[in-house]
Amino acid sequence: MGIGRILGEDADALCRVAAASPLKPPGTCLGGQVTEGAAMPTVIGHHDVKDTKHWLSSSKREEFFGPLGVTNIRTFVDPRNPAHVAIVMDVPDLDALMAAMLDAKAAEAMDHDGVLAETLVILIEEPAG
Predict the structure, then answer these.
(1) What is this structure's pTM?
(2) I need a labelling partner for 39 at 20 to 30 A (CA). Which of 50, 81, 119, 129 fits?
(3) Which CATH number fits domain 3-124: 3.30.70.100, 3.40.47.10, 3.40.50.720, 2.60.40.10?
(4) What is the pLDDT of residues 42-81, one digit of tens each?
């Protein structure tokens, strides 16, 4: 089961939000491959986990996001609620990221890392102004 089945209508909302991102190169649906000189949006994903230490030490993030060209992945932990965590990453292809998040491999990776998928919120960088 992919995260799309977990998120239901929210999966469609994720794609609509990504499509509206002003950081996508012109002429692409959600982002396409970013070409030299084009902005690479930063994406934040925050959610709850079952075991923070396991989540922090897991290599699944890099295994899952690496083939998508995602770089600069950073992890964060809420000091008041250590079960609430986040990642920040630079994403060259929003289309590929959103499609991958709907795939069963995303659900498997999240399950391995102890991510409570129903708490996942994805934010896409929007320039001010």
Answers:
(1) 0.73
(2) 119
(3) 3.30.70.100
(4) 999 999 999 999 999 999 999 999 999 999 999 999 999 9
